[in-house]
Amino acid sequence: MTMATVETTAPSSKPVKLRNHAARDRLIVVAAWLAVWQLTSAFVGAQWVSSPVLVARELGQWAQTYDIYQHAGYTLLAALLGFVIGGVPGMLLPFAIRRLPFVANTLEPFMVAGYAVPKLALMPLFLIWFGIGMWSKVALVASVSFFLIYFNTMAGIRAIEPQLVRVAEILGANARQVSRMIVFPATVTFIFTGIRVSLPLSIGGAAIAEMFSSNVGLGYLIQMSATNFDPTGSFAAILVLAGLVALTNALVDRIERRVQAWKPRANAFIAEGIAP
Amino acid sequence: MASAGEEYGPAPGTGSGLPYTSKLFAARAALLVILLLGWHWLSIRLGPFVLPDLLEVARRLLEICASGELLSMSAITLGEVAGGLILGGGLGILLPFLVSRSPRLARTVEPFIKMTMGVPKLALSPIIILWFGIGLFSKIVLIALMVFFMIFVSTFAGIRSADIKLMSMCRILGANQTRLTREILWYSALPFIMAAIKTALPWAINAAIVAEFLAADAGLGYYIRHAYDSADTVGAFAGVVAVTILMVLIDFGFSAFQKYMLRWRQVDVHAVH
Amino acid sequence: MTAVADFFEISNLGKRFPPKDGMSATWILQDMTFSVRKGEFLTIVGPSGSGKSTMLNALAQIDKPSKGEIRLRGQVISDSSDRMLQPGWNCEIGYVTQEDNLLPWRNVLDNVLFPLVVQGRLNGETRARAIELMAAVGLKGFESYYPHELSGGMRKRVALIRTLAYDPPVILMDEPFGAVDAQTRISLQTDLLNLWQTGRKTIIFVTHDIGEAIALGDRVLVLTRSPARISGEFPIDIPRPRSIHDVFAMPGFPAIYKDIRSKVV
Question: In B, which residues are within 8 Å of C61 by CB distance?
Fold first, then answer.
C-alpha cells in the first residue's frame, strides 16, 4: 500500500466570482442566525436561551482557566479509548471470517440484535462492572463502536469483486497476502466511512455516558449547567464538543486523503455511513 | 455478492446433504443456546446484582407482557418515536425539494448541514429537557432533531441523483415543471428516503430510550431507569430485552414496507441499505 | 409562402461542446443543412460516433445549437440565440431515444399512458388507442409489468408506442432497434412502417445500419464522421408498401446499398 503525498481533488470548475458568492452567502446565513438568536434572547430572556454574546464570553473565560481542558480531555480520552477498544476488534473480525461465509451468516442476526440493544440502558451495568470512573464510559463507547465498525467493514468486504481475489490467488498470492494486498485496500474506503460515522458518535456517546454518571467531562458540564438553569454553560460545552468532533473529522479526512490518494474524491454531500 | 442480511457466498457442495438454510438455522439456534447458557452460568457465578438470572428476566418479561404494562410503555415510547419521525422526517423530506429549486441556496446550506451531522444531537438532551420539560414533547423534539438531518441529507442526495435524461424525456412527452418534480424527483429520491428512514429508526428508538433514561415519567426507558434505581436489575434487563426485540421487530416490519414501496426496482445488492 | 415541401428545415446546424480540461472545443456537427417533407420517412446513416444523437438532441430541443437554425412549418423553433429551449416543442416533436428512458416506477401501461395523462388528453378514446398499440407490438398481457421485468426488446417497444400513443406529427428515432435481436427487429420495423403508413407522420430515423435505412426510408442522408456534415442524399425508389423481408431482394437495392456504402466512411 503506497502512501502518496499527492492529493487528488477534482479541479474546481466554478468561476471565481461564483465561489466568492457562496462564501459570502454562508457568512450572511451565519450572521442572520446569530442575530435571530440574540433577538430571541432579548425577547424570551437570556436565562432560557442564552445568547451568542453570553456563550462567547463564557468560552473566553473557560479558555483562560484550565478546567475546560480537563473536561474536554476527559471526554476525548474516553471516546478515543472506547473507539479503539471497540473499533479494532470490529474491524478485524470481518477479515478473520472473510473466508468463512457460514460463520459470517450465522453471526449476522446476533450482530444486528447486538447493535439494536440500547447501550446507554446498560450503563448502570457498566458502572457495576467497571466502576464509576472512566472505564464505564469507555465500555459504552466501545460497545457502540464495535458494531458500527463491524457493519461498515463487513459491507466493504462484501463489496470486493470476487474476481480480484481469484486473480490474485491465481497469480500465486497466499491467503495472508490476499488479505493484505487486495482485500484490505479495497475495504479501506468502507472502513473510513465507518470511522467517520463512529468517531463523532464515540465522542457523543462518551458525553452522554457522563450525563448519566460523572463529575467530570463535557457531558457532565452540559448536564450540570442545564440542571442549574444555566443554558449558557450548556451551549458553551456543546460548542466545545462540536469543536472536538470537527477536529477529529478534519484529522480523519487528512489521514484518509493520504491513504486513499489513488481514489477520486467522492461527492461531499452523498449520504454516508451504513447501519443495519 | 450479497447485501447485509442475506446469505453471503454460496455453499459449494459441502456434501453433507442438508440444505444450506437449514444448516444456517441450526447453527444460529446453537449459537443462541450457547449464549443463553453462558448468560445463565455467568449470572450464577457473578450474583444477581451484577447479572440477573436469565430465567428471572424471562419470567418478568412475560409478566409485564401479560399485565399490559409492556404495551402501555411501548406505546408511549413508540409514540415519541412516531412524533419525532413525522416532525423531523416530514421536514427532512420536504425541505430538500424546496432547497433544490435554488442551486445557490443549496450550495450555501450544504456545509452547515454537513457540519451539524457530526454534532451528537443526543448531547443536546439536557437543554431540550430544560426547555420542553420531561414529558413526551421534549422527546419528540430531540428525535425530530436527530432524524431531520439524516433524512435531509439522504433526500437531497436522492433528488440530485435524478436522471437528467429521464427528465428531458418527460419534458418532451409534455410534462411541466411541477409534474417533473412530483414524479421524477420524488421517485428518484424515494429509495434514498427509504434507506434513510431505515437507518434512522433504530437511532430514533435509541434516542427515545436515552431521553427517557435521563428524565421522564413514562415509557420503556423510564421503566428501565426506575428499575435500576430500585435495585431491580431483573426488571431493568427485562426492559432492555424488550427494547431490543422491539427494535428488531420494527426494523423487520419497515424492511417489508420498504420492499413494497420500492417493488419497481431491480434488486441492487449495493444499494444503500 | 412556405413551399408545401419543406415541413422541417435545418440550416447550417452546428454544435460544439465547451472545452474540457485543456482540450479545445470540438465541433460535433458542422454546417448541416437539409429539409424534411411532411409525411416523409427520412433515414439518416452514419458511422458510430458521428454525432447522430447530438443532431437529434438539437432537433428535439434538448440541446441548443451552437450555430444555425431549425424551422418547423417555416417558423424558427431553435437557433443559437438565447431563446429558451422547449423540449419536444409543445409535444409536436416526439423522440424515441437509444436508451428506452422508461419511468422505472411505472408499469408498462402507465408508462404508455404517461404522455396522455401529462398532456391532459387521457380519455376513453386515447386510452383505447394506447391499448391497441400495445397489442399491435405484442405487449398485450404485460400491462402491469415493471420495466425491470421486461427484456430489452420489450422495453424498446414500450418506448416506441409511448411516443406513438400521443400522436406527435414529427417523430425522431435514434437507433431504436439497435440493441434488439434480428427477428424482433424485423417485426418492429414492419410494425413501424404500418403505423407510419396509417398515420402519415413525419419520421426522422437515425441508424448505422445501411440496409435498415434503405428498407425503411423514402430518402437516405449520409453523415460523415465527426465533425459531421451531410455527405450524400439518396432518394429510395423502392415502391411502397414494402415488405422488410423481401426488400433486400428488390431490384435496385444492391446498387443503392453500394452507393451509400461508399459514402459512409
Answer: 172
Distances (CA, A) of A227 to A21, A204, A234, A266: 43, 19, 9, 43
Distance CA B150, CA C8 (A): 51
pLDDT at residue B5 in the model: 40
User: What one-letter code names the amino acid at C238?
Assistant: I
A–B interface: beta-carbon pairs under 8 A: 189
Whole-angstrom distance, CA of residue B131 vs CA of residue B84: 16
Cα dihedral A210, A212, A215, A217 in deg (nearest 10)? 20
In order, the DSSP letters of B58-102 are HHHHHHHHHTSHHHHHHHHHHHHHHHHIIIIIHHHHHHHHHHTT-
B271–chain C Cβ distance below 8 A for any pair: no
Nearest Cβ partner for A113 among B121, B228, B248? B248
Say whether B170 and C114 touch across the interface (CB within 8 A).
yes
Q: Which residues of B77-105 are buried (b: 16+ CB within 10 A; e: fewer)?
A: bbbbbbbbbebbbeebbebbbebbeeeee
- pLDDT single digits (tens) B186-228: 999 999 999 899 889 988 999 999 899 888 888 999 999 999 8
Q: How far is CA C208 from CA C51, C230, C261, C262, in A?
A: 11, 14, 11, 14
Pairwise CB contact (< 8 Å): B120 & A222: no
C87's torsion region: left (phi>0), alpha (psi -120 to 50) or beta? beta
Residue B144 banded pLDDT, cuts 50, 70, 90: very high
Query: d(Cα A71, Cα A211) in Å, to the nearest integer?
Result: 13
The Cβ of residue C19 has, within 10 Å, a number of other Cβ atoms equal to: 10
For residues A223 and A48, is the Cβ–Cβ distance under 8 A? no
* Interior/surface letters B234-259, b for 16+ CB within 10 angstroms, e for the rest: bbbbbbbbbbbebbbebbeebeeebe
**Is residue C94 within 8 angstroms of chain B, CB to CB?**
yes
Size of interface B-C (CB pairs under 8 A): 60
- C156 to chain B, any CB pair closer than 8 A? The answer is no
Kindly calculate the radius of gyration of chain B based on its CA atoms and give it in whole angstroms: 23
Alpha carbon A205 to chain centroid, angstroms: 10
Q: Could you tell me if residue B232 is left (phi over 0), alpha (psi between -120 and 50 degrees) or otherwise beta?
A: beta
Does residue A206 belong to the interface with chain B, where contact is any CB pair within 8 Å? no
Residues of chain C with pLDDT under 70: 1-6, 22, 265
Beta bridge partners of C221: C44, C233
Please name the helix (run of DSSP H) or strand (run of DSSP E) that holds residue C70, with its range, or none: strand C67-72
Alpha-carbon distance C3 to C160, whole Å?
31
Instruction: Average the pLDDT over A257-272 and give the result.
Output: 54
Partner B contacted by A164 (CB < 8 A): no
Q: What is the ipTM of this complex?
A: 0.84
Count Cα atoms within 13 angstroms, Cβ side, for B39.
15
Per-residue pLDDT for B2 more than 80? Answer: no
User: Quick check: bond before C227 cis, omega within 30?
Assistant: yes
Question: Do C150 and C104 touch, CB atoms closer than 8 A?
Answer: no
pTM value?
0.81
Amino acid at B223: Y
| CA gap A74, A82 in Å, rounded | 12
Look up residue A67 and give its three cell numbers: 478546567
d(C-alpha A18, C-alpha C34), whole Å: 41
Run of H or E residues at B210: helix B186-214
Contacts of C87 in chain B (CB under 8 A): 168, 171-172
Identify the three-state secondary structure at position B216.
coil
What is the spatial order of strands in the sheet that C219-223 belongs to? C93-96, C170-174, C202-207, C41-45, C219-223, C230-235
**On the CB side of B60, how many CA atoms lie within 13 Å of its CA?**
20
SS3 label, residue C99: coil
Residue C228 is given by DSSP the state: B
